[in-house]
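This is your field. Have a critical look at both lines of this record:
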Amino acid sequence: MFRTFDDEVEAKIFFGSVEETKEEKVERCSPYDGIVVSIFQQCDVQDAKKALSIAKEAAKTAAQTPLSQRILWLEDVAKRVEENKESLALMLTREVAKPIAFSRIEVDRCIETIKLTAMELSNLSGETIPTDIMSSGKKTLAYYRREPVGVVACITPFNFPLNLVAHKIAPALGAGNAVVLKPTPEAPMTAYMLSKLFIISEYAVKDALSVIYGDAEVGSALVQSDIPRVISFTGSVPVGNIITKQAGIKKVSLELGGNAATYIDKSADLELAAKRCAFGAFYNSGQVCISLQRIYVNEEVYGAFAAFMAEETKTLKVGSPYEDDTFMGPLIDKESKERAESWIMSAKNEGAKVIAGGEELDGLFPPTVMADVTDEMKIICEEVFAPIVSLVAVPDYKTAMEKMNDSPYGLQFSIFTNDLKMTQSFIEDAQCGGVVINDIPTLRFDVQPYGGSKLSGVGREGPKWALEEFTEIKSIVIC
């Protein structure tokens, strides 16, 4: 068993397979108690250029590495993550204050993501093409195959700082590329620990993975460079917009914001729907792109559902992220809490009512349910990214669907109903990347394609689809 990271707190730079430190360092403090939990190196534009240069050379070796070795590499990393599960979970909780029970789940998902990628590599193939299918053609041996793009630049967020790193670097490296990773400044040590397990593996491709840290300037240096052929980013719409403008002619995969919604039909199991909606709205303190933000409820059952929702919300334990039974800890920073509080006040001033939460609990922003919300309120129009959910009464499915689609976002929607025809209509009508029937839009399995439409982004994650993002098609004709 590889030794744990329990005594490490400093996230070092990886210039390829070589660890380095810098004089200028940044401390990361816990969002829960303000204690310094990790330290990372403050990188600059020159560091980004150095990492990209190393990746450019390493990409040549990576592309020639046998598929069998790359599969063994991923399998070995998955095993090492399993061996260091508790250390990884604890660091995740320290850096972003995710409740420890959910941190352990994220580590499990990280392991599964890496294993799924290894499995999907065997399906990364092309097919033959009948070039004599039309009279203008002729009989040849024609086919296509997928090849690595070369260098991939990955920029990851704070809300799933382990599994979303795995969703990018495992497929990118598995496909035969070199990677430069810039993880979120909120969880540098979590990303460092996972990256180190890739780099120290006996099957690792030398210098194929580099890790640097820094601000928007460092990110822009990665995005604007001609070296990476793919930019893979998960984060906010404003930053995604900047990346799109800066990237130039290269592939850009963006997983951006959302304003997830569900419809509660009068035929639904209201108690079950409320239980699941409370989970979907407040999981990870609402800091999830597919966090449930809008609940449209048939007016005939609105009162009953609102009561169930308020009751269920009040049962959720808010407190220390280090306790096994805590459901929700703090928001990522003070600014996020202040923004959430201001949105609550704004909605109340416009006529909305707080039926659960709304006021601090021991300094933590609580899970909050807003009733009598209208379409014009900021709290329902924009992405909240906080533990706030809004209830809206609607006369029928058609009205709910119109309101759900009337959003610049289109990540995931769901519906609770026992009406089969309504289910079939919903699948067709929902303008988004994914739909869920009789559960929350927050439901995601790592084996699925994941991504959205409209401002929610372009491209898809999930091992199978990420491998497509990180490869290019080469067409071959032998006459």
Q: What stands out?
A: The chain has a mean pLDDT of 96.
